[in-house]
Design brief:
This protein is an alpha/beta fold. It contains 15 helices and twelve strands. It folds into two domains: about 230 residues, Rossmann fold; about 160 residues, Glycogen Phosphorylase B (Rossmann fold), CATH 3.40.50.
């Protein structure tokens, strides 16, 4: 598995690159604060073969943000541009796969795409945000600049039909240059650690702790008299303002059964999913959260709000249960059904696992991305089963160097 760290220490390798050593940069914030965008990119790199065969390329991480504040992140952006230039000069760089959100992510990735265009490096723009709402708040000039960024890319990847409509109809990117690529996550053992009818009912939330993710809605639902919490254990996983939400939970009288785990690495998150009965994600705004796909892979019942691409890819009452947006009482009622209605939780978990196997496997995701790379870069990486217990390629210390700030998501990074 690739162990190259983004930064100055990677430049000598680029200087020695030859055209026979082809590689593709996967550009995003290469740290846990990059959220789902980082996880998707890291899954791709973990899944490639250990050595590139003839006619294939290596996927390499390209950090475009760093772990410092917004102003200091410009240094990481400058380093990323230098690495692209070195790769172009050395002849080994086949293309750059840019993972983009909104807000500052749009600015940084726009600079990367413009620089690649100037250097003659092909770019695939991978949109990880429901950008239309943010786009419509922009003045006319930033809107035109946003359209030009998308039009400069050789190809645009979106996660679902809603994002495709925005890119085609609003940004006016030609249809042949737009691909829908649904995210994928690693295989998991479904049903492990969840003996039916024994022990407490375990509810899990995975995501950055913010109001936008519906954390306050969840706490209010847990405090609702309509939800039986007598044998319930709730774990919230994610960075953000933990102190604030812990305080809220105590004020609502939830301290006895609600636990804040903080940020967790892949291995710990998989352990928690394997032992949980229900994943809840009452977000106000999403695209297609990896936490939901990982829950499906584990056969864990999903309770979520029907936002973003979720209702286009999941079916209410079949492989997920949809609950009303910003409605703690409705969320409590949905959780009560899934936790206590006979057979519903098992049915959702079983059908969700089947949907994962049909649509959200890592092999299929890798193949779709490779197809886009071959069309726009003329070459692609080769899939190889990721080793068990693999860790993020840039998280060598086993923990993040900094936590994501409150309210920060992959869309704002």
């Amino acid at each position: 598995m690739l162990r190259t760290r983004p930064g100055i220490d990677a430049l000598p390798a680029l200087a020695n690159a030859t055209p026979s050593e082809r590689f593709i940069y996967i550009a995003c914030p290469w740290a846990p604060l990059g959220g789902g965008m980082y996880k998707v990119a890291d899954y791709l790199i973990q899944s490639q073969t250990a050595d590139a065969a003839a006619g294939t390329a290596r996927l390499r991480p390209l950090d475009t943000r760093g772990t410092a504040g917004a102003v200091l992140s410009l240094g990481a952006l400058a380093m990323a541009l230098a690495r692209i230039a070195w790769g172009r000069i050395g002849g080994g760089l086949a293309g750059v796969h840019v993972n983009m959100g909104e807000r500052m992510s749009l600015f940084r990735k726009g600079v990367v795409i413009a620089a690649c265009r100037a250097m003659g490096v092909p770019v695939v723009l991978h949109l990880h945000a429901q950008m239309e709402t943010f786009y419509r708040t922009l003045p006319p000039l930033p809107q035109r600049l946003t359209r030009s960024v998308f039009l400069m890319a050789s190809g645009v990847v979106v996660i679902g039909p809603a994002a495709r409509r925005f890119v085609l109809d609003i940004l006016r990117v030609p249809a042949p240059r737009v691909d829908i690529v649904i995210n994928g996550v690693p295989e998991a053992v479904a049903g492990g650690g969840r003996g039916p009818g024994h022990g407490p009912r375990r509810l899990l939330f995975v995501g950055n702790l913010s109001d936008r993710k519906g954390v306050v809605d969840l706490l209010r639902a847990l405090a609702s008299p309509g939800l039986d919490t007598s044998d319930l254990q709730v774990t919230l996983v994610g960075g953000g303002d933990l102190a604030r939400y812990r305080r809220k939970a105590r004020e609502m009288g939830l301290g006895s059964f609600v636990r804040f785990e903080g940020w967790c690495d892949q291995a710990r998150t998989r352990e928690l999913l394997a032992s949980s009965h229900v994943l809840v994600l009452p977000s106000h705004d999403e695209v297609l959260p990896l936490a939901i796909l990982e829950a499906l892979a584990h056969g864990v019942a999903v309770v979520a709000t029907p936002v973003g691409e979720i209702p286009a890819l999941l079916t209410d009452g079949c492989n997920a249960l949809f609950v009303p947006l910003r409605d703690p009482a409705g969320l409590a009622a949905g959780l009560q059904r899934v936790l206590y209605e006979p057979g519903l939780r098992e049915s959702l978990g079983r059908n969700g696992r089947q949907l994962y196997e049909e649509r959200f496997g890592l092999r299929a995701f890798f193949a779709r991305v490779a197809s886009v790379h071959r069309r726009h870069f003329g070459i692609a990486a080769q899939f190889g089963e990721p080793p068990k217990g693999s860790k993020p390629v840039t998280n060598t210390a086993g923990k993040p160097t900094t936590a994501a700030p409150d309210g920060a998501t992959m869309d704002s990074l």
